[in-house]
Amino acid sequence: MPNSLHASLERIWLIDSSIFVFRAWFIRNPLPKDTAGNPVNAVHGFLRFVYHLLNEQKPQQIAFAFDTSLQSSARKAIYPDYKANRSSAPDELKYQFKLCRDFLDALGLVQTASTAHEADDLIGTWATQQRTAERQIIIISGDKDLAQLLKAEDIWWDYNRRGALHAGGIKDSFGVWPEQIADQLAIAGDKADNIPGVPGVGMSTAAKLLKRFGSLDNILENLEQIGSMQVLGAKRLQQLVTQHQATIRLARQLTTINCQVPEVPNDLSRKAKDLDKLQELCTLLKLSTEQYELWARV
Fold first, then answer.
1. pLDDT tens for residues 79-113?
2. Do 187 and 267 belong together in one domain?
């Protein structure tokens, strides 16, 4: 168990599910198929992650957030080109996403998605909703954007890829504190989500600005002081930030996680398994009797 997991606190596990499906989607050799001949590589990979998590950590309060089509999302309304660089998922991947969610349902685990809000926002809402002094929020994701949610004893963990990080670990890894991540991304932009930033300003320079001024608001209120910073090209940096203030403000609306999504489940406790459904899914996925029994016990 990582040192950053506190045995004395009740743990709330919040899973950014889609990234673990996508990682498995790109592993296509060998390409397992279900009984109907459909590829299920992403399902198998996602389920390996879920099984290890449940078996090793034995979470009692856990929820899985998924992304779905977001053509009418709040961020699209603000900036129509948001994530315009991403093509929609092919039908065979959509099929696998549904199987992943069905399997979680059969296990009695909370899972949800929204056509208006992203998984980040669902997780942010859960974190806000569930956080108490007696609880530790554990966010499982490979996306550093979600690290902005960390408070006190919370941790961000790219499970099986890197260690669990608390706020200090986020600062060491990304150069800014959790509460500065949305500002850092707004300044530098985020190519993965097609979010504009200040041209020529990367994450490292954005971190230096935030180290000096603390927040994006403070940067914009003290533009004339940027030119006196002890960084290469400080005068040019001042000009760039000054010229692109509107872009930065727009970008921060996109990089900031919405923690007030309505109607997310508030009971994250594990429920009884639907063993008939679990058996049906294991058969469809060509899982062995022994594998079904492992899932039935986990």
1. 999 988 888 888 999 999 999 999 999 999 999 99
2. no
Q: Are residues 130 and 266 in the same domain?
A: yes
Residue 1 has pLDDT above 60, yes or no: no
Residue 238 has pLDDT above 60, yes or no: yes
* Upper half-sphere CA count for residue 292 (Cβ side, 13 Å): 16
Residue 282 has pLDDT above 80, yes or no: yes
Task: Report the amino acid identity of residue 87.
Answer: S
Q: Give the pLDDT confidence score for residue 69 in this predicted structure.
A: 65
Residues 241 and 199 reside in one and the same domain: yes
Torsion, CA 78, CA 120, CA 49, CA 98, rounded to 10: -60
Residue numbers of the domain that contains 247: 179-255
The proportion of the chain whose per-residue pLDDT surpasses 90, expressed as a percent, equals: 85
Residue with more model confidence, 162 or 235 = 235
Report if residue 149 sits inside a domain. Answer: yes
Which are the contacts of 43, defined by CB distance < 8 A and separation ≥ 6?
21, 24, 96, 99, 100, 103, 285
CATH number of the domain at 221, please. 1.10.150.20
> Rounded CA gap, 50 and 12, in Å?
15
Task: Give yes or no: residues 291 and 148 share one domain.
Answer: yes
- Do 135 and 40 have their domain in common? yes
Same domain? 99 vs 202: no
Helix (H) or strand (E) holding 119: helix 119-130
Domain count, the chain: 2
- What does 142-210 look like in DSSP terms, one character per residue? S-GGGGGG--TT-EEE-TTTS--B-HHHHHHHHSS-GGGHHHHHHHH-BGGGTB---TT--HHHHHHHH
| Residue 283 included in any domain | yes
User: Domain check: are 192 and 268 in the same one?
Assistant: no
pTM given for the model:
0.94
Where would I find the beta strands (DSSP E) of the chain? 10-16, 61-66, 110-113, 135-140, 155-157
Task: Give the model's confidence band at 200: pLDDT under 50 very low, under 70 low, under 90 confident, else very high.
Answer: very high
